[in-house]
Amino acid sequence: MVHYYWQLVKMLPKELPIAVYLVNDGSSKGINEQDIQFLAAEIPHFHFIDLKIDDSNDFIKEKSLP
């Protein structure tokens, strides 16, 4: 993911702000906290959103465009 982020950054204008959002919508495989920390350290403006399974539909409804 880090590699592809920097490839994207190279292709876009420098003044264009880029943020990365990684959403866990209830994966049964689990998320490794060390991996999240690595991504946060390597990718500026990285955001991790950890949704509970019960909350994922409500989150999508709340955040979707009208």
What does this structure look like?
Strand 1 (20-24), helix 2 and strand 2 form a beta-alpha-beta unit. It contains three helices and two strands; from the N terminus they run αβαβα. It has one domain. The protein has a two-stranded parallel ribbon with strand order 1-2. The radius of gyration is 14 Å and the shape is elongated. By secondary structure, it is of the alpha+beta class. The N and C termini lie far apart (31 Å).
Q: C-alpha Rg, in Å?
A: 14 Å
Number of strands: 2
Unreliable segments (pLDDT under 50, ≥5 consecutive)? none
Listing every helix as H and every strand as E from the N terminus to the C terminus, the arrangement reads HEHEH
Work out the count of structural domains: 1
Q: What does the oligomeric state look like here?
A: single chain
What's the number of helices?
Answer: 3
Anisotropy-based shape: elongated
In round numbers, the mean pLDDT is: 82
Q: How are the strands of the largest sheet arranged?
A: 1-2
Distance between the termini: 31 Å
Helix proportion:
40-55%
Biggest β-sheet description: 2 strands, parallel
Short description:
The protein is an alpha+beta fold and 66 residues long.
What order do the helices and strands come in, and which of them pair?
Layout: H1 2-11, E1 20-24, H2 33-42, E2 46-50, H3 56-63
Parallel strand pairs: 1-2
